[in-house]
Amino acid sequence: MNEDVGEVPFPGENELDETDALRAEVAQLKEQLLRAMADAENTRTRARKDRDEAAKYAASGITKDLLSVADNLRRALESVPAEAIEQNEHLKSLVTGVEMTEKSLLEAFEKNHIKRIDPVGERLNPHYHEAMVEIEDPERAAGTVSQVFEPGYVLHDRLL
């Protein structure tokens, strides 16, 4: 005889407990799968965005080097008095050549989404402008750019 006479389980009760446990585990695994899929999609989206940004701004290194060339061409043109150009045909030809070179360089910049910004008369934007000095100008509101010491450039929407 069996001495251990205790509560006899209802037939199938263990199977019901096991089924509930398995259902709970399946639900948990489904939730983990959905989270993993969402994480994978977020990772793909971030990678795509990073790749697009890298391609968009890939030329910024060489571009920064060429900006000083554009600025120096402009300085060279501004340093020659208009009277001297009118009086000397050789100088006039040289200035015309420098102007054409500057124009060609700026067109190449424009073609590659690089723009020179000229903020004179605009409100100071700390994302694009660096205030060197503050001067009173009766013709302009406070916080307005009155003079540019060195032009700025943007590549797409990023200041170079």
UniProtKB/TrEMBL annotation:
InterPro entries assigned: GrpE (IPR000740), GrpE_CC (IPR013805), GrpE_head (IPR009012)
Single GO molecular function: unfolded protein binding
Lineage: superkingdom: Bacteria
GO BP, sorted A to Z: protein folding
Keyword Coiled coil: yes
Xref: Gene3D superfamilies: 3.90.20.20, Head domain of nucleotide exchange factor GrpE
A Pfam match: GrpE
Coiled-coil ranges per UniProt: 12-50
Keywords, ordered alphabetically: Chaperone, Coiled coil
Family stated for the protein in its record: Belongs to the GrpE family.
Protein name: Nucleotide exchange factor GrpE
The gene coding this protein: grpE
